[in-house]
Amino acid sequence: MKFLALVSGGKDSIFNVIRCIQEGHELVLLVNLYPKNIGKEADSFMYQSVGTNIIDAISLAIDKPILKREILGKPKVTNLDYQSNQEEREGDEVEDLFEVLKEALTLYPDIKGVSSGAIASTYQKLRVEDCCQRLGLISLAYLWNQDQFNLLGQMLQNNMNIILIKVAAIGLSEQHLGKSIQEVYEHFKYIHEKFGFHPCGEGGEFESLVLDCPLYKKRIQINESEVVCHENNSVAPVYYLLIKSYSLIEKD
Predict the structure, then answer these.
(1) How many whole angstroms separate alpha carbon 102 and alpha carbon 199?
(2) What is the pTM of this model?
(3) How many Cα atoms are found within 13 Å in the side-chain-facing hemisphere of 41?
(4) At residue 190, does pLDDT exceed 70?
(5) Strand pairing category for 161-167 and 26-34
(6) Residues 6+ apart with CB under 8 A from 184
(7) Which candidate among 66, 144, 226, 241 keeps its CA 20 to 30 Å from the CA of 52?
(8) Are strands 66-70 and 113-115 parallel, antiparallel or unpaired?
(9) Burial class of residue 151 in the structure, from the number of CB atoms within 10 Å of its CB (0-12 exposed, 13-18 middle, 19+ buried)
(10) Distance CA 44, CA 190 (A)
(11) pLDDT at 122 > cutoff 70
């Protein structure tokens, strides 16, 4: 089927697009929801905010159009059963997703599926499914409930160049920003065994950016960035990489 992909630039959303294509589906459109302070850390239960300032680079690298929408709502309905809270969900950040999907269908009425990188967050998965159900779309989440180290292995086998652009966990620091998954893979194993670290960042431990993969026609090169301390605490300080300039490089 023809599908649109919810993308943040992170590894999960991009790898699920690869999996959709491997299953025979046709990518038509990219969709991104971004915070008011684009590219910077923002509190959201649904969306990755760090790195959204270079989402156009993802569109150009994949060579597909992108539809973007600012996140206007807040996380209001915080329990899992989002569908039953119809009166409460007005102004919730999930309704921004519903509106942008509705707009996408107006522009591309032959779209049938929605790709998302949900792995272990029932909260996120149910909300994407709710929006899809209301619009007669099918949720495509091939990464759901898979072993996280196995998933990282699959991503590396698919030649994905993934770097860390946010850290927020015991065992991670600003020194790990910009490092590739290949470089930190063994360290991930160590802090998983010692602290219960989620290797795909499903506990909010880190966020990522895909600089290159087989899906890209061009690779992304970061030219200038700044390390920003979002929350300084002695246990798990939160740092992120604010990307200031980048280039798209032709691939051999």
Answers:
(1) 34
(2) 0.94
(3) 17
(4) yes
(5) unpaired
(6) 164, 176
(7) 144
(8) unpaired
(9) middle
(10) 28
(11) yes
